[in-house]
Amino acid sequence: MSKALSKLFKLRKALDEYEKEFGLSDYSEVEKAVFSYISSNANVTITSIKNDPYFSKYSLSTIKRAVLFLTSNGTINAVQSNVDKREMLLSPQQ
Q: How far is CA 35 from the centre of its chain?
């Protein structure tokens, strides 16, 4: 058990270092998670984020606030979908 906990702490330290590298250290946990999801997937929408089992612990409005924060500070882009004009496709800022 203590080996597993030691590995868990090493992973947390590594994650903290990566978040600092990407300038995410001041973001909330949900903002970090949403950014990571958007950066690692294609054709992301708020609905696709909410439908991922990882985000079941967050409300839709919490996810929307995180997306609004990330778009307003230029961390991610939101472009209207050509298929469904109601949806915005989210991608990391290039």
A: 3
Residue pair 54/63 in contact by the 8 Å Cβ criterion: no
Per-residue model confidence (pLDDT) at position 29: 96
Domains of the chain plus CATH, in order, are 27-92 (1.10.10.10)
- Looking at residue 8, its amino acid is L
88: how many CB neighbours lie within 10 A of its CB? 16
d(CA 46, CA 15): 24
Tokens representing residue 65 in the block = 């606030």
In 1-94, at which residue ranges do the beta strands (DSSP E only) sit?
76-80, 88-92
Helix 29-40 and helix 60-72: axis angle, to 10°? 80
The residues facing 91 across adjacent strands are 77
70-83 average pLDDT score: 94
Dump pLDDT digits (tens) for 31-65: 999 999 999 999 999 999 999 999 999 999 999 99
